[in-house]
Amino acid sequence: MAELGIEQNRLDQKFLEVFGELTIDKKAVRDLKIREARTITSFVEEWLISRFQAKIADKTAVYQAVTDFMSKHLPKKTEKEPIKNRLFNGEAIVLLDNFSVRIDLAKGLRLVTVPSLEMNDAQVIDEVLNNHDALLGGGQWGAGRLRLRAAEKGKNIIELIEFNPMQSGCVRLDKIVEARREFTTEEWIYLLIRTMGYEPTAYTLGQRCNLLLRLLPLVHNNINMMELAPKGTGKSYIYTNLSRYVWLNSGGALTQAQLFRNQSTKEIGLLGRHDVLVLDEGQSISFKGADDIHAKFKDYLESGRYSIGQHEVPSECGLMILANIEIFNDRPTHEDYVRHLPEMFHDDALMDRFHGIIPGWEIPRFTTERAAQGIGIKADVFGEYAHQLRSVSAFEFCYGKAHDLDGDIRDVKAVQRLSMALSKLLMLNPGDADYENYVFEPACKLRERVRSQLAALNPNEFHPSIKVSRRVPL
Prior knowledge:
The longest helix is centred in the last third of the chain and has 23 residues, at 435-457. The strands form seven sheets. Strands 2-3-4-6-5 form a five-stranded mixed barrel. Strands 8-10-14-7-17 form a five-stranded parallel β-sheet. It has a two-stranded antiparallel sheet with strand order 1-18. Helix content is 36%, strand content 22%. Helix 3 packs across helix 4, helix 8 (185-196) packs across helix 9 (205-212) and helix 16 runs antiparallel to helix 17. By secondary structure, it is of the alpha/beta class. It has two domains: 97-165, no CATH class; 173-470, Rossmann fold.
């Protein structure tokens, strides 16, 4: 840890003193090997472990308590019919799941989706929805009590009659700002890297800064980025483990109905329901009705809204493309490395609407030695914190500022938006000592990689360098 000039144990102790119960020992979580018993996300795993660690000191007992809880309340797909049978027999069942509610105005129903039962037509009582309106915002993890109730005309319905959210809820932003003052910028980056599940000491400062760029779409609205890298660098790791507001799609074919709006069911698509849509395995993804999707992507990435039929849908969802590319001597084999993406992304007009490209080839493969080895912020806590930053006002949170710039309009918009995201994440504003090195310059480099691909795709129209300059005050 020579770059930080501080001993690891001392810094871990500082994290504990400043953040207290908002932290967790990431290595201790991994050593329990809960995921060998069941595949769950980090924010669920850490929440369960924290819940039982508060009552039980012995590690073996904690493991037993967590796995017992999961076997009772986190059913496997093969157990859905036995659970339905228990409901049929009059038993009220408690499940830990990602419950969500949608409103069917035509039928006058509030319908609940219960993923573990592959059910999307359960209902919810007034009290639960009145107390937990986050269920309407794309879903919420928690313990829900279900029962079977006989409805009119002899039809049975399953009802959500009680709900206890798993997430930590709103994070006090003023307390996080106050805590940030206790750390240097490099120490703060160290904490963020740990929180993401990586071990900061296993990466150089430059590599740590590149890892941080993966968080930008989580903390600021409508950021559209790509990360292109060889296999095994952990590109999708944080998106599946750090936030319930992210939807990750791994390869396969996507339709217009899935992405934008299903005209038959009237259901809003992925881009309208989440903070970030991540298209993983981007090199192998395909689109059904590619021409229409291409046109709607261009519209959405430019304006933050899209039209389907007579419906216009505004959204703050960011788009993140993750793809594997060929590397030679730690550099992309081809100058136009976006050639690995589907053909629609070879269109310079669409590419120009992306704000930045993360240089994944500069990030080493994710190995066991690079997994977090100590204290970081709990994943569910950070996920809620990042979500709040997307809509926070300047009165509540004084960071998120960018330089006034002149130049090519898309370059200016991209650099400013990326700068605002980095400003929020690192809590640095223009005028702060570290702003240029950690915010403005990385934002420029992100956009410049987009420019390099525009020049490779269309050298007659695009120059590989960005065209922005700081505006001089009058």
